[in-house]
């Protein structure tokens, strides 16, 4: 997204960030209010839509039956991809949004998919296995950016976590073909009450810290992002483990600053995860839309703790 | 059942939604002096007295002898002129309007300016005040140094000079109050919410904040420039010989913005955003009103963009309208 | 396969001449000049309009009328089986062209010379009748943007299965092998703007199906008018004096 700002506006924005009063009154470490709607795509196994200020993204999870990946017969599959719709900006028309889509997809894959051995994935891949070596679930997580006002990565990670929590897998009954040479014969239960839920407690949430001048902020708007010198996106899960890290931008960062940013990201992701849990996303799949709104400004702990800045 | 305030990206708890719809209902009732037949959709027939004759204005078309609307909006009748004004359209320029625009291109002897209209406006080199206010012929050096005056992405305040048939519009900054904008913040709202008043430059001295309400929906909120702290704002549109000093910041001075001032600017900016989101008219009275309300309710600037504040603003407006009506 | 049960009910419980439930919302993307979502049953489409604005590439600028551009995209999760679609998808290109031509006929382009209008249509869920849904959403978005139009464009699809003309096919009925006819019309001017059909049917059947689709489109037009009126009233009365 091309955001043109005059030299005077840039000075004002940087000044605001330094003084801890951003354009909309937020402090450096405050998220915008956001809302989550689940089950917005009834045809999908799980879905969620999140509106974070002017950023609007949808994540959907579709489960298909598939063959386990080679070399890992007792694992299922997980695939993530992101599309930027031209509705978000005219620049995304045609192939315009491709670069950004790839960038976001890769960053999310890094955080959610784990290593080549399948270890460290957001979802326990072994839980997706149905018949070892023959049949497993393949989860396709798709993100769609409908409107953008900065901080797409965080919004997408929250939406994907919500969509996975919302996801219900139909019960698979093996009714034959259990010998090693045969293909398994199965039946899918259509009864929603027999759907299994995914264990999503270890799915990480990504927090992006954007450095503008000497200070760094969370949840940057598109205007603030255009001023960034560097940005660090950290994916943290419930255990406090860092699941993925991306540093963007040309300016180098001191190691101490980097470690600082990681610890700030950890604290924020804890707040976000609590907010998600509080929203009660353990609702049954494909139920009517349940709009839930909550205000992260309630979590004042972060204001008091502030953050060490250079 | 319409979703209240769909365009904004927060949603409300069920009880907040309830309060909001009730407040909006009360606002509508209190406002309701627009006759039902004045609302038209695209393609609707407009009732006209064909015998007495009529003049066809904007937003209408004549089909088979019938007058149809081409946009959704309200029918306006001024003497015999019948037109339909759409609401959420791009800025429709009129001569003499004060606008805030962003330079998109520096072309030979002119700048192209984005003013949220269907075409970019043009600002000719001959239509700007040279630094120092000197009146002289533009030389080749001036042409080469255009970027010294305004460069790409600069924000300026200007006045609409002329409109041409093909829709192109020309601006001028021939008064010291127009020029490059600094030390502040731009907020964008829908143009139809900005009332055309005699004054578009407002100095809110009590807060130390200057407000420029561009007719094109771009609102500039900044610190009061130092040069004009004692001057009065000129009342009429400037002509090219005017030397009245005003709120211009074309000198490029940087005012020191204290934290307090920044908080105030932010509060005003959020007040404008909230009014825009609620669909209320934006003028200095309503902005100051919202500002004071936020202070009296003890709301921090960052909480002004929350759902709760929006609901309270609508409720307050409903009360005020029913008192007036 | 029996698409119509002996009692005269279709697979989803509708009668042959019944439209699916219509839902629409105007103003969903704040940054855009006009936007709307339109739902016909399970088919859900969002249309966004940017413009009229300065033409981005000078070579395409037209001195006497506006340049109208349109892009149709389907989300990977929009169909029953998830499929990752490339941008050069032929169906998407065809639909982009069709929607552009339909809307261009409605817009009074000569009132907006040297400007550009971008219409972006994004399908969130596809369950038959996507073409019609896109056109309806685009109409709402254009009206929201205050772009002058000759008339609104309302669209609906109809087909012929089990020897019965049926209105507003869903995906299953669409894949049933019968004809699929989409019509878009200007309800006030009573003119057809778009007519597309696949498969082959005798002429008298064609007439029946075409009339049915037109009736459906008129019903959709009524819904669109109501939504627009509601939106206009809300905005005007909120604004007050």
TrEMBL record, chain A:
<dbReference type="InterPro" id="IPR020568">
    <property type="entry name" value="Ribosomal_Su5_D2-typ_SF"/>
</dbReference>
<dbReference type="GO" id="GO:0005737">
    <property type="term" value="C:cytoplasm"/>
</dbReference>
<dbReference type="GO" id="GO:0000178">
    <property type="term" value="C:exosome (RNase complex)"/>
</dbReference>
<keyword id="KW-0963">Cytoplasm</keyword>
<protein>
    <recommendedName>
        <fullName>Ribosomal RNA-processing protein 42</fullName>
    </recommendedName>
</protein>
<dbReference type="InterPro" id="IPR001247">
    <property type="entry name" value="ExoRNase_PH_dom1"/>
</dbReference>
<dbReference type="InterPro" id="IPR027408">
    <property type="entry name" value="PNPase/RNase_PH_dom_sf"/>
</dbReference>
<feature type="domain" description="Exoribonuclease phosphorolytic">
    <location>
        <begin position="203"/>
        <end position="267"/>
    </location>
</feature>
<feature type="domain" description="Exoribonuclease phosphorolytic">
    <location>
        <begin position="30"/>
        <end position="170"/>
    </location>
</feature>
<comment type="similarity">
    <text>Belongs to the RNase PH family.</text>
</comment>
<dbReference type="InterPro" id="IPR036345">
    <property type="entry name" value="ExoRNase_PH_dom2_sf"/>
</dbReference>
<dbReference type="Pfam" id="PF03725">
    <property type="entry name" value="RNase_PH_C"/>
</dbReference>
<dbReference type="GO" id="GO:0005730">
    <property type="term" value="C:nucleolus"/>
</dbReference>
<dbReference type="Pfam" id="PF01138">
    <property type="entry name" value="RNase_PH"/>
</dbReference>
<dbReference type="InterPro" id="IPR050590">
    <property type="entry name" value="Exosome_comp_Rrp42_subfam"/>
</dbReference>
From TrEMBL, chain B:
<dbReference type="InterPro" id="IPR004088">
    <property type="entry name" value="KH_dom_type_1"/>
</dbReference>
<dbReference type="GO" id="GO:0006364">
    <property type="term" value="P:rRNA processing"/>
</dbReference>
<dbReference type="GO" id="GO:0000178">
    <property type="term" value="C:exosome (RNase complex)"/>
</dbReference>
<comment type="similarity">
    <text>Belongs to the RRP4 family.</text>
</comment>
<dbReference type="InterPro" id="IPR026699">
    <property type="entry name" value="Exosome_RNA_bind1/RRP40/RRP4"/>
</dbReference>
<keyword id="KW-0698">rRNA processing</keyword>
<feature type="compositionally biased region" description="Basic and acidic residues">
    <location>
        <begin position="233"/>
        <end position="242"/>
    </location>
</feature>
<dbReference type="Pfam" id="PF15985">
    <property type="entry name" value="KH_6"/>
</dbReference>
<keyword id="KW-0694">RNA-binding</keyword>
<dbReference type="Pfam" id="PF21266">
    <property type="entry name" value="S1_RRP4"/>
</dbReference>
<keyword id="KW-0539">Nucleus</keyword>
<protein>
    <recommendedName>
        <fullName>Ribosomal RNA-processing protein 4</fullName>
    </recommendedName>
</protein>
<dbReference type="InterPro" id="IPR048565">
    <property type="entry name" value="S1_RRP4"/>
</dbReference>
<dbReference type="InterPro" id="IPR012340">
    <property type="entry name" value="NA-bd_OB-fold"/>
</dbReference>
<dbReference type="GO" id="GO:0005634">
    <property type="term" value="C:nucleus"/>
</dbReference>
UniProtKB/TrEMBL annotation, chain C:
<dbReference type="Pfam" id="PF01138">
    <property type="entry name" value="RNase_PH"/>
</dbReference>
<feature type="domain" description="Exoribonuclease phosphorolytic">
    <location>
        <begin position="18"/>
        <end position="148"/>
    </location>
</feature>
<keyword id="KW-0271">Exosome</keyword>
<dbReference type="InterPro" id="IPR001247">
    <property type="entry name" value="ExoRNase_PH_dom1"/>
</dbReference>
<comment type="similarity">
    <text>Belongs to the RNase PH family.</text>
</comment>
<dbReference type="Pfam" id="PF03725">
    <property type="entry name" value="RNase_PH_C"/>
</dbReference>
<dbReference type="InterPro" id="IPR027408">
    <property type="entry name" value="PNPase/RNase_PH_dom_sf"/>
</dbReference>
<dbReference type="InterPro" id="IPR020568">
    <property type="entry name" value="Ribosomal_Su5_D2-typ_SF"/>
</dbReference>
<dbReference type="GO" id="GO:0005737">
    <property type="term" value="C:cytoplasm"/>
</dbReference>
<keyword id="KW-0963">Cytoplasm</keyword>
<dbReference type="GO" id="GO:0000956">
    <property type="term" value="P:nuclear-transcribed mRNA catabolic process"/>
</dbReference>
<protein>
    <recommendedName>
        <fullName>Exosome complex component RRP41</fullName>
    </recommendedName>
</protein>
<dbReference type="InterPro" id="IPR015847">
    <property type="entry name" value="ExoRNase_PH_dom2"/>
</dbReference>
<feature type="domain" description="Exoribonuclease phosphorolytic">
    <location>
        <begin position="151"/>
        <end position="215"/>
    </location>
</feature>
<dbReference type="GO" id="GO:0071027">
    <property type="term" value="P:nuclear RNA surveillance"/>
</dbReference>
